[in-house]
């Protein structure tokens, strides 16, 4: 026997962005153990921001790398560790989008606002309402494990779209999901809802990844390999012991796609989205809504292209069937997202349904199956992510208030600064305590009068999601639907234009519920605001006022960057569209 | 071929696991259903590895085991924290989040 071990050659350079993020996550865990509590939070925040910024810089450097972009003599893309990681322009583009959005999301996560509290429970392990929880609040504990967890999730999200191996994809899926399950359970307020969100997310997520991995097993049975290139080869030219069982690979591919569509939040697999988005801490919701979707669409495109190109060689009829399934998913996603979204009364749930609808719009671009549709998808993911992180960042600042009676309620950290948190712009005749987020839509009435800037930027994000011209959302939808109309051959062939028509109609319905919020904020008198106090429309908690807390800085920066991005990409989209066009180079 | 029997068994186990997830009420049992699905996958991986005559499938089974273990850690933590809050591990009692 040959017993000498040959170490594999690894192109560490091309893994650098991922290694930086995951390495920072590991260092973050050590910081929890060794850095004194006083400075722990600062160190964690700085580390997380530096890591994501450095990863973004590395992605930019690699983008211009000749081995990645290819040349006249060499093809593009680098296969690291025999295809376990595929660093090609497409993978890098999605990685760049993920780390950019993660950077902005970490800014929002790190913000303690003028109340001096972040969005996370002082100790997530404490039973809600127990004396121990009371104690952790009084002591002013902080759960700084949030930052390493976010970094691990980002690491998984960066591997997910940049791997050519189904097993690595599965591991990346878990690496990105497990931290998100935990993060969902850590809200400071409404902890029962938060735990419930985490519970549902976990059970459904575990179910979906079990489907995914069984699909991988079936594909492995057919192809004899989990490498996507090998899968393509066996699909195109069937051979091997199980070549007589093409049903194996069809069922396998459907299961794999189901697992990926679950992460995207597409329609038959969307049931978790509203509950999890509503229950999770709002900064985390923004993070996972934007970044998970980008990463999962990257992985979905890879699998979809391999399966579709391979089946086109061997059995076009099966490919057609697969497309019918995708069509149904796309249509259903758009319809469910917009129709159910239109009757929501909770801002976070509404944004969740909006995110489902956007998954449908992106899928419209995806099923165009051309270079155009890849470009549209990459651009759409960036635009959607910016608007989503921004919108959820705004939601974190709009808070409920309650008049203070004898003592400060347990929900407010009494440890900080002694006096009850009194927003300075509220020249209080009566001290009020700032509670959790005011997520009920009725509580947002008249927000535009009290804080025109905040309401204005929120309107901008909503208009972008609605796809109004001069915002980035319009360009994104235009390119996505354009790709669908152009069809697979880019010449207007195929019948994917039907999807584009439904997409436009669904967008029109969606405009209704976005504009409804804008009208509510600017043209409706506050129902349960500071001047009324009755708030029968609010229904959430009687006697509760609504206030806007001041950001401690980071959230303002994040909102400003997102708003600027949405505007700039809407007015001058061409540079980024050109970049996205370069990103369509794609190693299967 | 004899080996296909193992594949059929894997499919049956997977179906039982999926049915458990979808039908049972107790969170722990639901969770066991997920584990059953993952182990059915392992059986399928190993059988396919035998059919193809390469060890890749056996290695994949190890990866799935490790991931399943990590999932158990996180999952049980979440279920226990819910149970300590509500004194119940029934998936039907977890219904505060409704539109």
Model description:
The complex is a heterodimer of chains A (588) and B (99). The two termini of chain A are 35 Å apart. Chain A is mainly α. Chain A has a domain at 323-408 and 429-582. Chain A has a three-stranded antiparallel beta sheet with strand order 4-3-5. In chain A, strands 1-2 form a two-stranded antiparallel sheet. The model of chain A is unreliable at 406-428 and 528-543 (pLDDT under 50). Chain A has helices at 12-34, 37-63, 66-69, 89-110, 131-139, 146-159, 166-184, 191-223, 228-236, 246-264, 272-279, 282-314, 316-341, 347-366, 371-397, 447-450, 452-466, 472-486, 497-523, 554-571, 574-582; strands at residues 78-80, 85-87, 398-403, 432-437, 545-548. Chain B has 99 residues and is mainly alpha-helical. Chain B has one domain: Helix Hairpins (Orthogonal Bundle). Chain B is 79% helix and 0% strand. In chain B, α1 packs antiparallel against α2 (27-52). The longest helix of chain B has 31 residues, at 56-86. The termini of chain B are far apart. The mean pLDDT of chain B is 89.
Question: Can you tag this structure with a few keywords?
Answer:
heterodimer, A: 588 residues, mainly alpha, three-stranded antiparallel β-sheet, two-stranded antiparallel ribbon, 21 helices, globular, B: 99 residues, Helix Hairpins, 79% helix, oxidoreductase (chain B), NADH_UbQ_OxRdtase_chain4L/K (chain B), transmembrane helix (chain B), EC 7.1.1.- (chain B), NAD (chain B)
């Amino acid at each position: 026997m040959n017993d000498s071990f040959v170490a594999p050659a690894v192109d560490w350079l091309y893994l650098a962005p991922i290694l930086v993020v995951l390495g920072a996550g590991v260092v973050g865990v050590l910081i929890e153990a060794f850095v004194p509590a006083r400075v722990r939070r600062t160190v964690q925040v700085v580390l997380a921001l530096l890591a994501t910024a450095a990863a973004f810089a590395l992605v930019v450097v690699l983008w211009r790398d000749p081995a990645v972009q290819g040349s006249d003599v060499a093809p593009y893309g680098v296969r690291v560790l025999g295809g376990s990681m595929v660093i090609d322009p497409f993978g890098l583009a999605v990685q760049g989008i993920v780390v950019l959005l993660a950077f902005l999301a970490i800014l929002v996560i790190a913000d303690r606002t003028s109340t001096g509290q972040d969005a996370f429970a002082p100790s997530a392990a404490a039973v809600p309402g127990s004396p121990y929880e009371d104690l952790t609040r009084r002591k002013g504990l902080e759960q700084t494990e949030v930052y390493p967890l976010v970094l691990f999730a980002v690491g998984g999200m960066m591997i997910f779209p940049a791997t050519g191996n189904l097993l690595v994809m599965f591991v990346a899926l878990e690496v990105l999901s497990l931290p998100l399950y935990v993060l969902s359970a850590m809200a400071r307020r409404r902890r029962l809802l938060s735990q419930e969100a985490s519970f549902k997310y976990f059970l459904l997520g575990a179910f979906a990844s079990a489907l995914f991995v069984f699909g991988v097993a079936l594909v492995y049975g057919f192809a004899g390999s989990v490498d996507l290139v090998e899968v393509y080869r066996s699909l195109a030219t069937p051979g091997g012991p199980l070549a007589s069982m093409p049903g194996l690979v069809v069922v396998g591919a459907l299961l794999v796609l189901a697992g990926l569509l679950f992460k995207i939040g597409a329609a038959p697999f969307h049931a978790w989205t509203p509950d999890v988005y509503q229950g999770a801490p709002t900064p985390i919701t923004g993070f996972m809504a934007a970044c998970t979707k980008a990463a999962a669409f990257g992985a979905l495109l890879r699998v979809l292209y391999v399966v579709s190109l391979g089946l086109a060689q061997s059995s076009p009829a099966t490919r057609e069937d697969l497309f019918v399934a995708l069509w149904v998913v796309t249509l259903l996603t758009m319809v469910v997202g917009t129709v159910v979204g239109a009757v929501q009364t909770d801002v976070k749930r509404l944004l969740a349904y909006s995110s489902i609808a956007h998954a449908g719009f992106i899928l419209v671009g995806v099923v165009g199956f051309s270079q155009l549709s890849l470009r549209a998808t990459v651009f759409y993911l960036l635009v959607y992510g910016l608007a989503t992180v921004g919108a959820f960042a705004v939601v974190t600042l709009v808070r409920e208030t309650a008049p203070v009676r004898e003592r400060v309620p347990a929900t407010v950290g009494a440890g900080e600064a002694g006096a009850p948190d009194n927003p300075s712009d509220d020249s209080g005749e009566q001290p009020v305590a700032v509670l959790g987020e005011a997520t009920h839509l009725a509580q947002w009435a008249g927000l535009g009068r009290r804080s025109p800037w905040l309401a204005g930027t929120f309107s901008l994000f909503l208009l972008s999601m609605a796809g109004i011209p001069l915002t980035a959302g319009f360009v994104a939808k235009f390119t996505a639907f354009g790709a669908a109309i152009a069809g697979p051959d880019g010449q207007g062939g195929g019948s994917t234009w039907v999807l584009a028509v439904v997409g436009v109609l669904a967008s029109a319905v969606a405009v209704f519920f976005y504009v409804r919020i804008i009208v509510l904020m600017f043209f409706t008198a506050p129902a349960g605001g500071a001047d009324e106090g009755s708030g029968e429309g609010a229904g959430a908690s009687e006697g509760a006022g609504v206030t806007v807390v001041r950001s401690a800085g980071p959230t303002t920066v994040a909102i400003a960057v997102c708003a600027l991005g949405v505007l700039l990409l809407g007015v001058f989209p061409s540079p980024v569209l050109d970049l996205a066009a370069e990103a369509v180079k794609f190693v299967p | 071929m004899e080996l296909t029997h193992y594949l059929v068994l894997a499919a049956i186990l997977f179906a039982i696991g999926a049915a458990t997830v979808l039908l049972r009420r107790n969170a722990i049992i639901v969770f066991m259903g997920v584990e059953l699905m993952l182990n059915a996958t392992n059986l399928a991986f190993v059988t396919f590895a035998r059919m193809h005559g390469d060890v890749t499938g056996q290695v994949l089974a190890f990866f799935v085991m490790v991931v399943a273990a990590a999932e158990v850690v996180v999952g049980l933590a979440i279920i226990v924290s819910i149970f300590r809050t509500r004194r119940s591990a029934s998936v039907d009692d977890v219904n505060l989040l409704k539109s």
